[in-house]
Design goal:
Layout lengths: L1 E8 L12 E6 L24 H9 L6 H12 L2 E9 L8 E10 L5 H4 L4 H4 L1 E5 L9 H20 L6
Parallel strand pairs: 1-4
Antiparallel strand pairs: 1-2, 2-5, 3-4
Length: 165
């Protein structure tokens, strides 16, 4: 399973502050109910850290004439930060089984590509949500890795720890 986590700053003008609010790309299983959301999860091949399906969704949501944003998006997708790769217990599995999980974080430091994404939950089932504590508490696996991504994102601006995979 692949769980890409995409973040951007809520206010790009405040990006230099440690407590600048972030937004995260979420999936709405039922676009009529925007109170229920989850991180995007995909079945993926072991050698496919970022599933083709989410790449297509992202590129379809950028205007075809916005070459600058498309170019920035290509660069962001090449420099994801590996958060987790390996087996984890999963609530959907039975008999104490596990799933292979690949979690990677993608952040738009330049605030060009992700600002250009025209995601409409009623059309694509994807949209942006302001980050708040415990927003994925209903899913312990998502919550654990999401909190790690948010912490790493906030700290990386000060210690320069952008390790790509």
């Amino acid at each position: 399973m692949s769980m890409p986590i995409f973040t951007r700053f809520l206010d790009p003008n405040q990006a230099v502050k440690l407590d600048t609010p972030l937004e995260v790309l979420v999936y709405y299983p039922d676009p009529r109910n925007l109170d229920k959301f989850t991180l995007p999860e995909f079945s993926a091949k072991p050698d496919e850290p970022l599933p083709q399906k989410i790449i297509e969704i992202l590129f379809r949501s950028i205007s075809i004439i916005d070459d600058n944003a498309r170019s920035h998006l290509k660069q962001i997708l090449k420099r994801g930060i590996l958060i987790k790769r390996g087996a984890v217990d999963h609530v959907l599995n039975t008999d104490n089984a596990w799933v292979e999980l690949f979690v990677a974080s993608y952040h738009d430091d330049d605030e060009v590509a992700f600002r250009a994404l025209q995601l409409q939950p009623d059309v694509s089932k994807y949209g942006w949500r302001a980050v708040h504590d415990g927003m994925f508490k209903h899913n312990p696996i998502q919550n654990r890795y999401f909190e790690r991504v948010v912490y790493n994102r906030r700290m990386s601006r000060f210690i320069g720890s952008n390790q790509s995979f």
